[in-house]
Fold:
Amino acid sequence: MSVLLIEPFYGGSHKQLMDLLQEELQEDCVLCTLPAKKWHWKARTSALYFMQTVPTSSNYRILFASSVLNLAELSALRPDLGKLKKVLYFHENQLAYPVQKCQERDFQYGYNQILSWFMPEHKLAHLEQVIGVKKNGDSYQSEGLPGQQESRAVMKTSDAHPESGLCEPQPGLCTTQHEGLPSPPAAPAQAEAPESTNPYQGEDKQCLTFNLSNILSGLDYQQRPLHIAWPHRWEHDKDPETFFKVLMKLKEQDLPFYVSVLGETFSEIPDIFSEAREVLGSSVLHWGYLPSKDDYFRALCTADVVISTAKHEFFGVAMIEAVHCGCYPLCPKALVYPEIFPAEYLYSTPEQLFKRLQNFCKRPDIVRKHLYKGETAGFSWAALGSKFRSLLAAEPREDL
Structure:
């Protein structure tokens, strides 16, 4: 077990990536996790927990962790782990993460991330040679790599080897774009929800079965109403308010459509969900998280359009999964999306999103006959697996 995998928030895309790595590496790794609950506590205290629970072993060579872990603290608390080559994977940037309320930001989480990837001058000089990091005043920036937005973070390692593939502009390895998609045509995986907090879960699971088997199958494919999917976490950073306001406007104009609101819920659910559930009424095909992968993919495969209204996104596994299942994507012209999706799938304002959906509601055949013009194969494990294996197979150096 030469690779030590540490995940303090073992759920969602975090779990998806770790499970994929463990499956592919098999006997060559050990996985240490904490449940996907109380994220803020995990960010503050998980280093102390793993200091006590990660077994000591002389076989470890690589430490791979998500940035929820304060890697600097763990390295100090466990000098044996501090000597390993370390790969830190950023699922999000806490310095730019949207705040839910107008209040002073808690700087601790961004500070943890800074400490976890800070490197001394001699290492930055080495990176400048290997992957083209240039100094700009008192800061460093990457040149010639994808992901130059302020809200993105380059995957950091305690050393960079040319054979690892880090010097190549491959999406998902140089940046945080890859979150564990399987290889086409195999179905991509949806992570299990830590807990169900959805009051409609039982009711709408039955509703989904009834609607899909009776309503959709009884209509001509090209004539049935447009089916819209929103497969995201029910939290403020995904901006459900914008999404539901657009749908309510479609409803006001008596435009025909169905909607499946997928994604996991946590202890706090934005008020807009209960309001939208009531207003949308019979337009709802499904409401809430689907623990069954088959049910989840079936819902995506019957959908025509998948929408993101996110305010903060490094990659967006759910959107790529939906495109993989045949959905037409509509994404903000911001964040990571222009790097992944061609311009015709991007919108700049809620008004533009409404107009696109208005047109699709009137002519659903437009999206049903459409062939996606982007490329998703580069994000598959078939494309990136060898680079991850190379990265995680590298031997540590004495000067780390």
Notes: The longest helix spans residues 201-216.
